[in-house]
């Protein structure tokens, strides 16, 4: 897998340098294509890891939380990739906005989990009194 990633990186870098010398207007498209190729490699290599972690989670009492965990992880990775592409294209403000929206999306996704934790804490405090 590491060899494929390195070959892809060298190919994308070579293509980017050629496009930059030839017609720099197309450079953002090369960067986006490279980012998509890396994302596809990431997804294909992450599948066994996700299956393994999901098996571990299913064997515990936290089985109901695995969809939230994987959705939050997906949002974080997607947000990071998108913001890096924006920064590469010189749009730091858009990148910051994407990151902020991603963080808020994860917070919204976790609200039911936060509610459960606060309810459990309240019950524990009542037991201690």
In N-to-C order, the SSE pattern is HHHH
Mean pLDDT: 85
Would you count the extended β strands for me?
A: 0
Low-confidence stretches: none
Give a written overview of the molecule.
The structure is a single chain. The chain is an all-alpha fold. It folds into 2 domains: 1-60; 64-129. Helix content is 88%, strand content 0%. It has 4 helices and no strands. It has helices spanning 2-22, 27-58, 66-88, 92-128. Helix 1 (2-22) packs antiparallel against helix 2 (27-58) and helix 2 runs antiparallel to helix 3 (66-88). The radius of gyration is 20 Å and the shape is elongated. It starts with a helix and ends with a helix.
Keyphrases for this structure?
2 domains; elongated; 129 residues; mainly alpha; 88% helix
Helix and strand topology:
Elements (H helix, E strand, L loop, with lengths): L1 H21 L4 H32 L7 H23 L3 H37 L1
Helix pairs in contact: 1-2, 2-3, 3-4
Provide a quick synopsis of the model.
88% of the residues lie in helices and 0% in strands. The protein has 129 residues and is mainly α.
